[in-house]
Amino acid sequence: MAYLPKELILKSYLTLSSLTDDHKQGQTQIVSAIRHFFALDMFYKSEEKDCDLNNNDDRKLFINNVKKLVNIKENYYTTNFYTTIKPIEDCGVGSNFTSVGVVNNSKQNKSTTYKYPTRGDYPLFDVRNVVAIRNTNYYKNITHYLFSDTMCAAFIIWMLRNESFTELNTTIIKEKLLTLLTTELVNAFVPKDEILNSFIEGFALNDDQYQIEVSDVKNLFQIDSNNASPKGNYNNFLTAIRTKPFILLAGISGTGKSRIVRKLAQASVTEDLQRKKDSKSVEGGFSRWELHKPANFEIVQVKPNWHNSMDVVGYFSNIPTPHYEFTPFTDFIVRAWRHKDIPFFLCLDEMNLAPVEEYFAEFLSAIESRSKENGEYETDPIIKPFSHYGEEVCNEMVNQLIGKVDAANAEDNSPEGKLVNRLKFKGLTLPPNLIVMGTVNMDETTYSFSRKVLDRAMSIEMNEVNFDSFITGESENDIEEFDEKTKKYLVDRPISATKENVTDKVDSTRIINYLKCINILFDNTPFKLGYRAANEAILYASAAKDFGNDSLESALDEFTLMKILSRIEGDESKLSIDEKDPKIKALHYNSEDVKYKGEGSLDTTGITILSFLHRIIEDKLGKYYQEDQDLATQEERIDPDIKIGLDNLFDNPEDADSSALVSPDAAQSKQRKKLKSLLKLESMMNQLSREHFVTYWN
Length: 698
What we know:
With 698 residues, the chain is an alpha+beta fold. It contains 30 helices and 24 strands. The protein is 42% helix and 11% strand. A five-stranded parallel beta sheet has the order 13-16-19-12-20, sandwiched between helices. Strands 2-8-7-6 form a four-stranded antiparallel beta sheet.
């Protein structure tokens, strides 16, 4: 017999840590609901009856089922699939379980049936007279809490972590589940075979059973004095890069915009490449995080006087003899061509100190010409075919870029021969592994971006500052070494959502309908979206899934922030909308619906493109991440004044996290996190009210 490997078990734990954005009380409440629901189904599977918690035997069996679901080691358990670890003896219902929440209510009102969880429209079972009652009509609701196929797959693996296997495949996984759970529950939440296969892909069974340790859990996360986040919390960067290899990093000065580009390069550079490029940097051994300049990294400081592309792509000169003057940028591109399986990161530092359209014109054109021809990545050249300059100059140009190569007689089928032929007859084109990331500051010394630039780039804001992690040095450790799969995702990117069958991976219809609504709003404005935006929205949602984010709402929220809001700028006259504008009726609203009246708003009476867009996003994507997963009711929160008991259903009240000791309003605000695009829009609306002009980049 064999068992699930440690790495797969930890992968499931890490996945489940993202049941909510708030890993504290909100997540604890959700995990409580999930574990009680599954414990009840396990009870019914073995006993074929509902669980009477007044009965000592029933209660003990239920408690043991709960422990099986959350145990991480012989004497400990997790309250939230995060960093809160407690002694297993605290996991029981305790002698005073009838004094809290719905259990207490059901004891006092014996004929009344209560739904659990008590808040929201997604109950999992009923409670009546201290009896937990199975209700198969609720079983479909479990996918509201395990909100994606990947999350369901993770929980399945977690449930089976102590089971023995003959082989690892979906058939046996389902067979094992059916020994623990009822058929109704298995049918309700087990995802399709391809999802399960994707989750377990690359893992093999072990001969020895692995018991997850407390230290394993702690090592999954980086912890500072105030909060914890999964290691590698940079998926928005990776998702944007996989969507398009041209990124704008915006934010206040000193937030680490150029540093993140260097870190991404350090995470992906290989020892072999570093030795070839700079052997001195590895004389004392290869330590990627200490490399000042990884071999796959180049930084180009943009100068204010750049008004043509000579400083980027070079130029042809006849003085003193005909030759071509190359630049560090062109040298870097050729190096990337010679190592196509490794991501190469170019940082354009302070890229808007000069007009981007002028000095980066060739790149902006080439990035939109990307295609795949007979399986080969192709773009228009940023330097025309070298043969155009004559045979002698052509051979000199090739040798200058590649090194000591007989450019005139290089073998066509060798890697260098193929590169020589490319340079000679196609020119210097963009390689598939080149990723350009520009840092952006907006002040009186810089230029704004035209929509030509914004259309071609993914924009990421970097304004968050955590001084606590800076003091402890943890701000330097937020990226891990990339595995081969991640590197492949960054260099082998789909270009066309329709031609490369990406539309089948995501709900493309919902994405397009979302963009249609926005385009109705943007009609007759310069902000209107084109086919490029539609293609990239689908690519982004697909890339998000590649990096473990199955939430379409989350992906579209990030895409809206990166690609849609960045287009909007103007004064009040440009952004105002008349109350009788036909767009309002076309999108099935009235004028009051599309005014923003949120807390802190400086203008609650007028209609603008911003307030209208805010309403569309709320309706199409929701207002909060996992909004309905806030399970605590008003009477279940602990108020400092009235000491209301926290309902963890059957657990001892002491099992509740101390973060619950807040007033009802504060608790609710901590347990839900508003969409990033809505927060940005609210900031832009207030800027428009204050300054009568707004731009995403301020």
